[in-house]
User: Which sequence fits this backbone?
């Protein structure tokens, strides 16, 4: 894959948007899409863009349908409407477990349809995305994710073994909006041992405190998207801003 050459330092990941869910937050999503348009940010879609509850699967199918505000068909149309203004800025998309419901039951891949209509490269479950800015190519590895465990970084650790060239590993699914770094040692051109680091990132959501989250005893998470800032200096470090594109901090 040839690197995506970008003109601005901003990269935004929209993950776990859940258009069509009762607890979806359309106002925050619209604000952040507009921010991306105004700042010409590079955008990645990271699965669960639509709620896509269907009458199939386990005994929870009824609960899933009751948590859905309008049909999957209208969710797909709404998703296309929301992201159309920035379609030229979207460089990749992945498939989430919610879109995978119809893929498994009827061979209809909603994520691939969204990518096809918006003319966006489709990565399926995820993969590496090279991004070039100011003379350096950064390797982003983006998957929707699968694990909902208490350790949000364990899945990132696993992917680092699969994608060792990654500068950043981003995963959604668990609705965390958080980041950390993973240090490592390597040899520079002179043979000197030097320290480096990779960025681990969980990519947030646009779903409020849904019943199934309460039932699992999980904490409500801040909603929104991470803003990744590429450095002007090719030897600089990636920055991750978790606040510019997230909901306002609560007043305690």
Assistant:
């Amino acid at each position: 894959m040839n690197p995506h050459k970008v003109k601005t330092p901003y990269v935004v990941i929209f993950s776990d948007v859940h258009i069509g869910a009762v607890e979806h937050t359309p106002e925050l999503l619209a604000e952040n899409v507009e921010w991306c348009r105004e700042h010409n940010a590079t955008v990645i879609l990271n699965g669960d863009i639509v709620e896509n509850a269907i009458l199939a699967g386990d005994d929870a199918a009824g609960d899933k349908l009751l948590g859905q505000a309008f049909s999957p068909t209208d969710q797909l149309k709404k998703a296309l409407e929301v992201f159309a203004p920035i379609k030229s800025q979207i460089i990749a998309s992945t498939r989430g477990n919610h879109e995978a419901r119809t893929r498994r039951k009827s061979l209809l891949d909603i994520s691939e349809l969204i990518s096809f209509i918006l003319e966006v490269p489709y990565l399926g479950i995820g993969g590496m995305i090279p991004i070039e800015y100011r003379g350096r190519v950064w390797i982003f590895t983006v998957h929707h994710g699968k694990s909902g465990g208490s350790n949000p970084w364990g899945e990132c650790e696993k992917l680092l073994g699969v994608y060792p060239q990654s500068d950043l590993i981003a995963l959604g699914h668990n609705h965390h909006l958080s980041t950390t770094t993973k240090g490592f040692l390597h040899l520079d051109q002179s043979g000197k041992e030097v320290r480096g680091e990779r960025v681990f990132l969980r990519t947030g959501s646009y779903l409020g405190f849904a019943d199934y989250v309460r039932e699992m005893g999980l904490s409500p998470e801040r909603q929104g998207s991470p803003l990744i800032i590429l450095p002007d200096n090719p030897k600089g470090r990636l920055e991750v801003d978790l606040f510019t594109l997230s909901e306002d901090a609560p007043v305690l």
